[in-house]
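Subject: for your reference before the review

Hello V.,

The reviewers asked for a structural picture of the protein, and I figured it would be easier to keep everything in one thread rather than splitting it across files. Below is the amino acid sequence we used in the manuscript, unchanged from the supplementary table.
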Amino acid sequence: MSSSVPRISVVIPAWNEEAYLPRLLDSVDAARARFPGGSEQIEVVVADNASTDRTAEIAAARGCRVVRVEKRVIAAARNGGAAAARGAIIAFVDADSTIHPDTFDAIERAMAGRRFAGGATGVHMERVTPGVAAAFAMMIWLVWATGMDTGVVFCRRADFEALGGYDESRLFGEDVKFLWRLRRLGKGRGERLVRLRGVKAVTSVRKWESHGDWYYVLMLLRAPVLPLLSRGYVERMVRRIWYEGRGPRNPPSASLP
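And here is what came back from the structure prediction:
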């Protein structure tokens, strides 16, 4: 990476992502090449979350800043990557995604003024089945109601630090909690969250491929009773879904958006 201070740092939390990471980095390189400020203004930080495969080696060979994070919690990986980031704006994207070529340009335009505290690009699913579509339909109301979304999530580094980053006590849902807090912080300054148009990321459906096309629907239906279940049961379920399953080791080839 360049020694100059970058404008945007993209943080990629990654655990055993040697199969998916190259595809994401190809899309990041394409977006960096189209950034009007120059590719050196985009820093790429891979937060290697105690991987046992070639994730760190691949990231280093591609010129990424690699940070080792031993705590096997996604929030810790995000925070570890952000701690090493140097950009004024920090963007987060999952390793099994690809991003749109105009992503960084769109983020820069959105954050140039003080209308927005941060936001997200939104996502397209890599493959749509009835189960995937049903889960998406069950969650989209939250996006419409709050303006929060997923895909590439971004904010100012100063605001990230002011909020203390992601909550590492949470095994999942840390991204939703962070955006709620960012939304509240921005509201106090007359800012809001933005859902960027035309630059959606593409995300894999490997969790559906690992656990079944209807697993997310069933999980959402069970969500209201989760507080009644034992902490140990919920933690085992969460770790099985978010921390152990990986789906196909060879991702389908995909053209860039």
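For the response letter, the relevant points are probably these. The domain at 8-128+148-205 is CATH 3.90.550.10 (Spore Coat Polysaccharide Biosynthesis Protein SpsA; Chain A). Strands lie at 8-14, 42-48, 65-68, 89-92, 97-98, 116-120, 123-125, 153-156, 192-195, 201-203.

Happy to draft the paragraph if you're swamped.

O.
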